[in-house]
Structures are given as C-alpha cells and as structure tokens.
Amino acid sequence: MLGRLTKIAAVVLVALVLAGAIGALWLRHTLRASLPALDGEIAVAGLRAPVTIERDGLGIPTIRAADRNDLAFATGFVHAQDRFFQMDLLRRVAAGELAALVGPAAVPADENVRLHRFRTRARRMIESAAPRHLELIHAYTDGVNAGLGSLGGKPVEYVLLRQEPGPWRLEDGTLVLLAMFLDLQDERARADADRGLMRDVLGEPLYAFLMPRGTDWDAPLMGEPYGDPPIPGPEVVDLRTMDGWSALRDTEQAARAAPVLRESPLAAGSNNWAVDASRSAHGGALVAGDMHLGLDVPNVWYRASLVWPGDDGQQHRLTGVTLPGGPVLVAGSNGHVAWAFTNSYGDWSDLVLIEPDPDDPDRYLTPDGPRDFERVTETIEVAGGAPATLEIVETIWGPLVDRDHLGRQRALRWLAHDTAAVNFGQLGIETLRTVDEALAQANRTGIPAQNFVAVDREGRIGWTLMGIVPQRRGFDGRLPVSWADGSNGWDGWLEPAEYPRILDPPEGRLWTANARVADGDALLKIGDGNYPLGARARQIRDGLRALGKADERDLLSIQLDDRALFLERWRDLLLELLSDEALRDRPERAELRRLVVETWTGRASTDSVGFRLVRGYRLFVSELLFEALLAPCRKIEPEFSYPGRQSEGPLWRLVSERPAHLLHPRFASWEAWLLHAVDYTLDYYLETGPAAVAALGEDGGRLPLSTLSEATWGARNTTRITHPLSRAVPQLGRWLDAPALPLPGDSNMPRVQGPTFGASQRMVVSPGREQDGLFHMPGGQSGHPLSPHYLDQHDAWANGLPTPFLPGPTVHTLTLTPKRGAESAP
C-alpha cells in the first residue's frame, strides 16, 4: 500500500512539475509576445508618409518624420510600444478609474480623486484646444492605438491582472497631465486648512512665529532673505502654564512606535539653474535641471529625439524627455533654446468658506444672491464587484470638500478645474529661437505652474513662470475666507505681460529649487503655496558662484552635491551639549559622540553614522517641540498636520535663544531638555520594536550599544524603486523592481535622494552643443521586464555617471509606412 501511494505521489509530482514547466513556458511565451518590434517595417493607418524610428543601444528612439503630425503619431506609437500600462495607470489615477482595472481595493482612491471630475474636465479642455494642437492630439492618439495594436500580445501587467487594455481616447493625454497636477499641487488646499486651524486655535502671534514667510536660508532671485521670526513673549504664550506640554509623553510614545524615522515628506520639486555665455567655459549658455519626483519602475520620463523638416526647409530637432501620454517634449533642447523646470509652489488652490442661506439650508450665498447647490452623481466601475456611486456637491467656485473645526462647509477653488489649466501651449516652444520668445510662450502655456528657466544659442538666459496664475481680489490666499459678498475671489488669470520675469541678470546666473523666488509685487502675484525651505536653493546659488566659468561636468557636480551644510550647525550643537560632564557615567551618550566625531563626513554619504545621528537628533528635537506646541490643534483636529516647511526658522531660534517661558516645566534648563532629546534619539536606535527594527533590522530585547555603529545613512537611505504591481503583490518584486541600493543625498541639499523619491532625471545642455550635453535617469526606456532596456540606464543614474544627452549610434531601425487604402490622419 505504501509503495503504491509512493508511486502515485511520484506520478502526481511529475505531473505537477510538468504542468508547472509548461505553465512557465506558456507564461514566458505570452510575456515575450508583447515585446515591441524594433526592426523591420509595419504598415499602419493614419500616416501621411513613412517614419523611421532609430533606437540606440539604450533603446532611446530618434524619430524622423516628414511633418509634425506624423511625428506625433510615431511618438504615440513608441510610447504605447514601451509604456502603455504606465500611460493607462496615469489616466486612471487622474480620472478616478483604477478600481475598474484592479478591483474594490482601489475604490477609496477613486472616490478621493473623482471629486475633481477630471474626465469631464479633460473633454472640455480638448474641445477648447487650438485647431493645430487638436490635429497633433488626434495624430498622437491614433499612434498610441496603432502601437498597442502592433504588439504580439497584451502588455505584461494585463496578463497578470487578467484584464484587457482599453483603447487610448482623445482626452486621455490631458488626463495624464492632470495626474501631474495631482502630484505637484495641493489638490485639497490642505495647507490653507491647517494654517486656518493654527491661527484660530493658537492666536495670531504664535501662529506667525510657527508659520514664517521665510528664513535666513532664503536665496530668492528677487529680493533678500526674510530672516528668522521673533519668539513671542511670555505675555503671548507661556508653556509653564499651557497644558499643551502635557502631550510630551504621548508624543514620545507615538514616535517610538513609528515604523520609520519621522520626517517631513520630501516636497515634490526639482532643481534648475542656468549660466550665461560670460559664465561658461565654452562661451555658450548652459541650463541644468533635475526634476524630483516619486521614483517608480518604469521611470516617469521617456527619452526621445524628434526630427522633422520645417516650412523653411530647415530641420527641426528636439531632444530631451517626454511624458508618455502626450506628443510634447517636456524638457530639453531644440538646438536654439534649452529649458528646464522646477515646481513653483505658488498658491494655486484656495478654500472658500461657504455661507448658508439663512432661509434655506440647501442654498448658499454668492455675490449674485443665494443659489442652489448642484449635485452630481459619479459611477465608479469596479472589476469583480458592483459599481460604486459617489455624490459630489458643487458650488460656483468648486466642489464641497470638508467642514472646518467650527462646522463651516468649505469649497475648493483649484485652477486645475479650469479649462485654461491645460492648453498644450508648450508645443509652441518647439521651434522658437530666442529666450525672449520662450519666456513669452511659457506665460501663455497651461501646465502645473513651474519655474521655467531657459537659455538660448546666443548665450542668454531667463526665468519666468509657465502655467496660468490666478488674480486674487481682497485676500492673499494663505487662509480660508468667505467669497459670499464678492470682496474676496479670483478675477480670472494674469495676462502674459504681467508675469514676473528675469532676463539677462547682471550676475549671469539663475537658480530655482522650489523655494521662494520673489518678493514684493511679484510674490503677491505668485502667492505662497507653502514653499520648501531655501537651504537647497542657497547651496546651489553658492555653488554656482564658486565655480567661475563652468562646463557641463561642473554643473553635474552641483546636481550631485551631497554636502550636509544645512546640518553643520546641528552637529556643532550636539557636540557642544555632549560635554565631559554630560558624558559622565553615560556610555551611550559617549558612543553617540564618538560616532558623530569620527564618522561625520560633512556629506550625506552612505557610510556615515554621524550624518544619520545628527539628522535624527534634529528631527526628534523638532518633533518633540512642535508636537507639544501644536497639541491644542491636534486635540481639535486629530488629522491636523503641521504645514511648517519653514519650521527651521522658529526651531533654530528656540534652541539658540532658549526662552524660559517656552521650556517644559519638567526640566530645570534648556540644556537638560536638549540632552533629554539626545537620550530619546538613542532610545530610538537601541530599543526594540518597530522603530529599532526599521533602523537596524533586528528584534528582541534592547540592542547592544555596538549596533549603533551599524546605523549608517546608507542603511536608512536604501532605494525602494518598485513597480506598481509589486506593491500589491510583493512576490513580484524580484522580477519587476529595481535593485535596492544605498545612495547618498538627502532633502536639504542639491542631491535630493530618499528611498522612494529623488531625481527622476538629470540633464545639463547648451543649445547648439547638444553633443557635449549630459543626461541620466533611473530605470530605462522600456516598461517590459523582459526587455534589455528595462533597467539599463539605472546604474549610471545611481552612480552619477556623466552619460551623453544625445542618443547614441543606431542599433535598431523600424519603419512605419502608411497602410494602403487607409484614411490618412487629418
């Protein structure tokens, strides 16, 4: 009997192994079928003339077409070949349609975004597009669907999800750009909400201290640093009598339970700068840009070089990055003008306090009298489940989003809801020849508002904003206010001639890094969308000034600058506190001091324990101080989040001046409190539980003191650049994700780097000298895990290697030809 069972088991096992092998072979064959054709000839409907697609050794295409329409078609074709699933996710994220692809788990995310009704708005934007732009959008859309149809099988992700890819629609490219609005702007005006709560609960003096307009780290293009704010006196706030400090113990316990070291989220942004001909080594103006975004596989950008003849017989050539979903070159060079972006952090959304009609709660007051709320029902399709419905209540200003702590309803006014927010004006930059023309076109272009830095072949440089700018009336946009009587509101959009600009600055340099760039009237126009601290911008400015005459590699070196200048004074403070007396009978403090002294490299280097400990100490001091000061806000609104991106100003003022009325009464002196924060930092790294496990990867009992030396910055700053599917199914990560790498860099320095956030590309180029330009980006061109171009650009990006801006020699050539008998594109 046992022998028979053994034989049966053996037969079953062999059958299972064979079935598994056959299944694996079938899966591999199915997945390989969706790899794009890179050579040969494909006849497609929609072209007017043949197009060649030459790919280099990294899969970067140079597309040559007889006209701009065919070029748009072919751009859509290669995007769909290499990145269709990424494009599909972007349009679904913006439209609130993820659940239709992945099932019920995505319904909450869809509900959150569906509030904006972006598919409806995208259709209106397409309807209002200029006829010439609409031609290109039609051609691009046809190209996407042709590219998808050319694949021998559906893209990998749809095989794994057991879904079918849907066709690309005319408005989908607009949705992709609206997805960038969601990523780059405050789509719920949360900063306004949190600032409003702080002012109401804490009072104006303490609110003004905690929410300064800037600090002495500022390095604006216009004006000077604002300086750190003064500390309110004891007549304003005295923590010795304020019950907010009773929250200290709860704050410490909450922090210890956190799975990772607490820190303010890295602000979505970028670096860019320019030097004119007088400041360059070769006499041509240079522009540098590295856009900081969440890092995924595949990367957000797709490299390309686009070539076509102009009406004057001259050849046009665009090189740089595109965003899969549209025919536009986002950043790069046209041979005469080169440009780069950083997120502007102007104020692009406001919360409107709604005043109900005293006679009818279903109506609200407006400058034109009471009006009915408009109710719209949205249906969310759900794969494998019943559809969900969502009711959206609209006002003349925008949808209702929440109620404040006093129960008042608030509506959202966000420029992304306006038809003018996306107008495809960036297409107008493609053939411009001067920086003057580029700045003027930037002011007429609807995208998520960006700092636009451009240079031209004549060696000139300039800065302005690209994107529409609201004209506010009666208020500055920082706090929620009522618009009911007409004294507050938006009066349309800034005219192009009214935009702030800088052209040919006497210094010969320009720089932006998401921080405040202007003051005075220019700042009033742009508004304050909660600017990040100016430390990164200042380090870039000072780095440029130290260069003298620069070349491409010099500017790349600034992009890779990981010097920890921002933390130097915190290191000094920590070492000052750790005196001989403070170390007596305290071996843990002594070990911390030794590691800071011996391993501090002055950089956010992967081998430095000192950098990580100093950084952690500053974060814990910040957390413990501000959580206590803000406890009254948290008590009223548990979801409150301190929007203090300028918090370094008040924080450093407190630890430097050490006012008695803002000292926790449990401590005899500020020195004692700051040493308590040292011990708290040590406890974080040496106690077990989620915090210590995240820090050092161990569990069980208090960790031995020797393990503190293992807490390098690289152990914390290890990349987790993942594919969307592996985040849902981690077992796929080995196949789909980029390798985990410890990398240098941090937030308050030019080399911005976190585990899942950082430079989505780095570029340095001089128009007319593109052959000397530099470029790299994470990941690769292809979104197909079996492609050799899935991750083949990743090492150069991770190691900061200077690789060419232009595509290399041709390795593959694909020709698209018009299909006979097929109707040509319009």
**Uncertain stretches of 5 or more adjacent residues:** 1-22, 254-265, 688-693, 695-700
The backbone outline, from C-alpha atoms, is globular
Give a short account of the largest sheet. Answer: 11 strands, mixed
Count, helices: 27
Kindly state the percentage of residues in helix: 25-40%
Structural class, judged by helices and strands?
alpha+beta
What's the average pLDDT? Answer: 91
Radius of gyration: 28 Å
Ends apart, CA distance between termini: 77 Å
**Strand numbers in spatial order across the main sheet:** 1-28-2-3-6-7-8-9-18-19-23
- Beta-strand proportion: 15-25%
Write up what this structure looks like.
A hairpin with a 3-residue loop joins strand 8 (329-333) and strand 9 (337-343). The chain contains 27 helices and 28 strands. The N and C termini lie far apart (77 Å). The strands form six sheets. The protein has an eleven-stranded mixed beta sheet with strand order 1-28-2-3-6-7-8-9-18-19-23, with helices on one face. Strands 4, 5, 24, 25, 26 and 27 form a six-stranded antiparallel beta sheet that branches. The longest helix is centred in the first third of the chain and has 32 residues, at 2-33. By secondary structure, the protein is of the alpha+beta class.
Summarize the topology.
Blueprint: H1 2-33, E1 40-44, E2 51-55, E3 61-64, H2 68-95, H3 99-102, H4 107-114, H5 118-127, H6 131-150, H7 156-161, H8 172-184, H9 190-202, H10 204-210, H11 248-257, E4 269-275, E5 286-294, E6 302-309, E7 315-322, E8 329-333, E9 337-343, E10 349-353, E11 356-357, E12 360-364, E13 371-372, E14 374-380, E15 388-394, E16 400-403, E17 409-414, H12 435-442, E18 450-456, E19 461-466, E20 470-473, E21 481-482, E22 489-493, E23 501-503, E24 509-512, H13 520-526, H14 535-547, H15 552-559, H16 568-577, H17 580-583, H18 587-599, H19 609-629, H20 631-636, H21 648-657, H22 670-686, H23 690-696, H24 713-716, H25 724-728, H26 733-736, E25 757-759, E26 762-765, E27 774-776, H27 794-799, E28 812-818
Parallel strand pairs: 1-28, 3-6, 10-21
Antiparallel strand pairs: 2-3, 2-28, 4-5, 4-24, 5-25, 5-26, 6-7, 7-8, 8-9, 9-18, 10-17, 11-12, 12-13, 14-15, 16-17, 18-19, 19-23, 20-22, 26-27
Helix pairs in contact: 2-6, 2-8, 5-8, 9-10, 14-15, 18-19, 19-22
